[in-house]
Amino acid sequence: MDFVDAALDSVWPAELRTDRLLLRPVIPEDADLVRELLTDVRVRAYLGGPASHERVASRQAAYPATAGAWAVVRVADDQAVGLASIGPDHRCEGRAEVSFQLLPSAWGHGLGREAVSAIVSWWTAVVPGGGPVVAVTQAANVRSRRLLESVGMVLVDELDEHGARQCLYTRGGDEDDSDLRWVRLIASRRDEVERRRGAQARATAAGRRLPGDLTVLTADELAQLCPARHGGYGRICARAAGHTPDLHLGRAPDGAWIAWLTSRAP
Ligand SMILES: CC(C)(COP(=O)(O)OP(=O)(O)OC[C@H]1O[C@@H](n2cnc3c(N)ncnc32)[C@H](O)[C@@H]1OP(=O)(O)O)[C@@H](O)C(=O)NCCC(=O)NCCS
Q: How many domains does the chain have?
């Protein structure tokens, strides 16, 4: 279990109150609200379009059983006007993601920002070990981005997902604010991991172009190969001499070509 789930379980069910809203756990009687939100063309404009009948039915069943899923109730007339949730961010273990949607009739009154601000503050101040919180929204979703920026969230990363450019926001604050530092660190590490993964795949592909039996290589060809033993395991590297020091290619015990990475120079 992700520790976001564990943190949520320790405080759920929870109700949040703001000046104009009550956020209460979703109940089966919210089924019409769920259907309206999931099938509204405007609400779904940046969320992949209106959901299918099957998807609506599965969400109607799932929401009341989901820790971190609230109905957003306008206190003045006791109307449920939206849904908001916090839960594990599937992109990164240990990170929470907040999401929100209101019926169009409730837009333009600052209710979305009131709900999101309450959730982020609650998560940060009240939930033990909740970890950093992010929100991801399409770059083209101007209303949503304005909302996030108005509650002090900061754009820290961009990614492509569901066929669209997405902006990743996290809770801002002081320069040494932990969420900001943490999420920026993950973003920079992801670049590094992906660069390395790409390099590893390219090196493995290069290995497949070498003959299975290196002894068929001529002396000249063999002389082109890297003569060093690299890294902590002392594996024999079969790449050309003078290659980038951190990426090596050789044989696994089962004979398959493998590429490996080490920060040690040959
Ligand atoms: C994202 C969404 C909740 C934003 O709704 P919203 O009402 O525009 O957002 P806010 O709560 O920030 O309200 C801001 C608006 O209320 C106005 N407002 C009126 N009274 C206000 C008050 N007391 N306080 C603050 N703003 C107020 C603001 O001027 C602003 O209007 P503007 O957009 O014309 O400038 C809504 O567009 C939505 O549900 N979209 C579909 C779902 C979605 O895309 N979700 C995001 C991905 S998770």
A: 2
